[in-house]
């Protein structure tokens, strides 16, 4: 089972992100994620056994994710995969702290934290051309979150579907 931990936008924010992805797709091409699949990944685990998935679901329900907010106000592009993404101009210490604590917990389950620094980003397009930065719209969206979700990435006929396996309990 391919698993990852993520934050999911609420409906209003998701609509804004989908609209933005459509707009930018006009100039950069590429493929948009399914509308309902837009998210922020905090930890990608890869393939785990069903028994491990069940342990991780229990761990998730006991994990504390304090409510917080971050601002989406900058675009970026990863050459690998042609990922056109949206993130934050300023560092986001609260998200960094949740991500670090999550990985700390995951090490007890045998997972190894990534060697690359965490760069919070929301993928809007894949296989997209590098944008003309000055042509991109100005963006300033607030993302209020209060829970972390353990996601099962399932291959289906149309690509990948993201099912929620468990989420943290909100305070
Ligand atoms: P991306 O949006 O930058 O591609 C599910 O695949 C989520 O996990 C995506 O948000 C993806 O980030 C992220 N992810 C991180 N590392 C990954 C990896 N090695 N393989 C696939 N997805 C990964």
From TrEMBL:
It is an enzyme of class 3 (hydrolase). The active site is at 39 (proton donor), 121 (proton acceptor). The keyword Hydrolase applies. A motif (HXTX 1) lies at residues 39-42. It comes from the Bacteria. Keywords: Hydrolase. Its EC number is 3.1.4.58. Pfam families: LigT_PEase. Coiled coil: none annotated. It catalyses: a 3'-end 2',3'-cyclophospho-ribonucleotide-RNA + H2O = a 3'-end 2'-phospho-ribonucleotide-RNA + H(+). The keyword Hydrolase applies. A motif (HXTX 2) lies at residues 121-124. Residues 8-85 form the Phosphoesterase HXTX domain. Belongs to the 2H phosphoesterase superfamily. ThpR family. HAMAP family: RNA_CPDase (MF_01940). Hydrolyzes RNA 2',3'-cyclic phosphodiester to an RNA 2'-phosphomonoester. This is RNA 2',3'-cyclic phosphodiesterase. It comes from Litchfieldella qijiaojingensis.
């Amino acid at each position: 089972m391919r698993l990852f931990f993520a934050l999911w936008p609420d409906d209003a924010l998701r609509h804004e992100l989908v609209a933005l992805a459509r707009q930018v797709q006009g100039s950069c091409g590429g493929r948009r994620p399914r509308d309902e699949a837009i998210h922020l990944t905090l930890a990608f685990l890869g393939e785990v056994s069903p028994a491990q998935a069940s342990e991780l679901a229990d761990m998730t329900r006991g994990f504390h994710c304090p409510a917080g907010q971050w601002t989406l106000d900058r675009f970026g592009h990863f050459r690998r995969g042609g990922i056109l993404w949206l993130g934050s101009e300023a560092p986001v210490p609260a998200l960094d702290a949740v991500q670090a604590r999550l990985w700390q917990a995951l090490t007890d389950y045998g997972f190894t934290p990534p060697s690359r620094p965490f760069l919070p980003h929301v993928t809007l397009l894949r296989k997209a051309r590098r944008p003309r930065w000055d042509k991109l719209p100005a963006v300033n969206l607030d993302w209020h979150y209060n829970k972390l979700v353990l996601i099962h990435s399932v291959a289906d006929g149309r690509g990948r579907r993201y099912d929620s396996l468990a989420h943290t309990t909100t305070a």
